[in-house]
Amino acid sequence: MPTRPQFPIKVFYDGSCSVCSAEIEHYLRQEHGGRLQAVDISAPGFNPEPHGITQADFMYELHVIDQAGVVYRGVVAFWAIWQAFPAVPLYRVLGGVINIPLVNPVARLLYKAFARIRPYLSKRRGCDDGTCKTGRK
Q1: Distance CA 116, CA 114 (A)
Q2: CB atoms closer than 10 angstroms to residue 134
Q3: Higher model confidence: residue 137 or residue 51?
Q4: Which of 27, 55, 109, 112 is most buried (CB neighbours < 10 A)?
Q5: What SS3 class is residue 73?
Q6: Beta carbons within 8 Å of 84's beta carbon, 6+ residues apart
Q7: Tell me: the pLDDT tens digits for 4-36?
C-alpha cells in the first residue's frame, strides 16, 4: 500500500479532456475540506518544470503531488485522491480494493489502456481560448 498523502494534494489533470475534467469536477464538488487542489495541465500558463515531470508525462497519466513532494501516478493517484474523503465509505472501499494484490495489476492494466486511448476521446466543449476551467473557481 502506498504511503498516505500529506494534504493538501495537487491533482494535475488535462482540462481539455472531457472525461478527465468530469472526473476531477466530481471530486471538487464534494466536501473535501481543502484537501484537493486541481491544476489544469492543458492551461497555457502551466509550467511542468518546477515539478520535475515532463509535459508529456503529465499528459500521459493522472498525477498527484502531496505536500511532502511525493508523486502518485495513474491508479495510485486515484487512491491518493480517495484518501481526501475519509468519511465517504465508497472511497474507503475503492481504496482498499485497488490495493488487493490480484486487483491492483488488473487496475493498472486497465488504466494504461485508458491512458493510451485518452488522446482520442472528445475534447471538452468551451475550451476555445486554449484553456478549460473546472466548475469551481
Answers
A1: 5
A2: 16
A3: 51
A4: 27
A5: strand
A6: 5, 7, 9, 27, 32, 33, 35, 36
A7: 999 999 999 999 999 999 999 999 999 999 999
